[in-house]
Structure formats: C-alpha cells, structure tokens
Request: fold
Amino acid sequence: MMKNIFLVLSIAVMCFRLAGCNKLVIKDELKGMWSIDSINVSGNNIKHCLLSNIIIFYDGECEIPSCHNDCIPDLFNCAPKGNWDINHSDTIPLILSIQSISKGVINGKFQVVFHEDKVKRMLVMELISKDTYIICRKGLYSYIEKLETIRQLVEMTK
Reply:
C-alpha cells in the first residue's frame, strides 16, 4: 500500500516537473525577434496597417508593431509595448497571452502552433484567436543547433 502511494506521488511530481520544464523551454524559445509574415483580422489582411512587421519577446515584456492611425478605425490605439506569458499543460493547447496597453490588434489570448519550415530552415509560429490569425518566423535563430528543440515544440503544439 505504501509503495503504491509513493509510486503515485513520484509520478505526479515527475509530470509536474516535465510540464514546468516544457513551459520554460517554450518561454526561452519565444524570447527574441519574430518577423510577421501575415496577419489577418476578421478575414482581412492588415499587414499593410502595421508600421513594422516585428514582434520582440523579452522576459515578460514585448514590443509589438504600431498601426497606422487611419488604416483601420478600431485599431487607432495600437501600442508598441505589452506584457506576455504562456499557459501550457498536457490537456490544453499552448496559449500565449499578450496584454498591450492600448488593447490593439496584437492583444489577448492566442493559441500557439509551431511548425518546422524544412525548406527555409526556420521555426514558424502561428498565433490564432477568435478574430486574429498571425504567421511569423523566428529571426536570428540557429536552425541546425536548435533542430531538436524545434521538433519538440512542433510535437508539443500538434
């Protein structure tokens, strides 16, 4: 009986540690510069509305593109800074939460899906919410050195 309790507790601790490690790996790999390849809001391509196509993730903070003031009336308050965090477990998809000051287009909760682009040798990330769909790729990222990590990220977000 005691062995069974010990076994169950050991397995629970291992699962908790693995989930925590996965979160740390994901956070580490999200940090850095991401180039926005496409961004659609309510089915409309709004990439031309952004003043840049770069998102940069730091420790808990991020720089996000500002918008042209007159491009889309609802997006006139796009702020270039925000905070971010992730939620991940084995039972829910990876969720990236971005809170910008202005509540602009790149704000809120996004499901994250990673892909390996074998042709261009890049890490690609999809950010998906109810109204917004973003595809971006990691910049200044060593594909060969990070290949195993890329494959783990892809597997985690299938």
Notes: Residues 3-21 have pLDDT under 50 and may be disordered.
